[in-house]
Every structure is written in structure tokens, then in C-alpha cells.
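REQUEST FORM: STRUCTURE PREDICTION
Request ID: SP-0412
Submitted by: Lab K.M.
Chain count: 1
Length (residues): 227
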Amino acid sequence: MRIGVLGTGNMADALATHWVRAGHEVTVAGRDARRAQRLAARLGGGVRAAGLRAAAEWGDVVLCALPFGAGEDVVRGLGAALEGTVLVDCSNPVGPGFRLLTDQGPSAAQRLAAAAPGARVVKAFNLCHEDVWRMRPPVFGGRPLAVPVCGDDEEALVRVRELVRDVGCEPVAGGALERAGLLEATAALFISLWVGEGADAQAIAPPLAYAAGPPRQTTGSGTGAVG
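STATUS: Completed
RESULT:
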């Protein structure tokens, strides 16, 4: 798969590293050409640096690893270069006080889709710190990290699920792109718990078997449930 990466920061570095190891062709681009060249050299594996438009036109999938707001401005300027492209948004619109910067309006992913109407936008990779994505692989307690993925185009979702697996994680169907705001709100909550409270956010959810209440027990005769 050909992957264009818009951005030269930690998320771009962490995710692209996995995809290069998985054998994908990667081109990186940024608003600072010299930073893009340095990232390409660090990634190795034939990764090249290019301009933002060239990377967008080249990629079958394009990762938008830019801060909230900046990504929207960049893809709007790219116009037809993203026509038909799978555009992955990993941003978190979280500001001071761990509040959502979208102010109950469209999610960051939906704004990206509006800025690039010809692209097939998918929300993924937004719930973890970049150092988690650097792990080989991200496995905790023997279980691979689960990555929710939201989008409207099935072919785009298939490609992004493949990229999730290439990171060593398990994709989870998060629903349509309209649900991306829930992922962003979840990130805001988790960050506030982790950073603000020092709490283990993973501990707030019961195991799947208990999601709808404790499992019902059956009588010894098998005549029905009790309780």
C-alpha cells in the first residue's frame, strides 16, 4: 500500500515506523520541508520526503497527523489532490482544562471531511499517547490494544483496519463517521483521568461479559434463569 503522511511530529513518526516495517511504501510531507527530510531519513526503508500536495496525490491512504485546525487548513488547500483518497484523522481537539475544542459542533474528523469533500475520511489512532504507538506491539496483559475505527466507506475501513493490524493492534468497528465525535470526547475524558487525576481509565469499564449486567445463572435442572 502507498501511504502519504501529512505531518512530521511524533504521531507521524510512530505510526509510519510500523508501516515501513510492514512493507508499505511511505512518503512523508510537512509544512517544514527540512523536518520532512529528517523524518524520512530516520524512518529509512526507502521512505522519501515530498511536498504536501505530492504526498497527498501519491498515497492510496493519507494519514493526517497534524494538530486540530492545522489539518483542516492543510487539506482544504490540497483540494482535488485528495479526491477518492482514504484520509485518516488521528487528531484530538482537546484544549486547556481537557475540554473539547469543537464546542459541541462537528467533530475534528467531520471538519476534515468538509474541508476535503472528495476524500474518504476515517477516524482512528486517537486514543493513545504516541509512545504507546511506538511499542512493538502494543500489548497489555496479553491482549493486543483495540483501536476503534469510524468511517462511512467500507473499502476505506478495510484499508485502515489493515493498517491497525500492521501496528500490532486489533481494529474495532466504531460506526459511521458521525460517531467520531464520541471517540474525540472519549480521548478528552481519558486524558483528563490519566493526566489530571492520575486514574486508570481502563478500570472504569467492566469486562464484556458484564457489560449488560452480571451473567445470569441457570438452575441445575436447566429449566430457566434465576435472578
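NOTES: The first strand starts at residue 2 and ends at 6.
Reviewed by: T.R.
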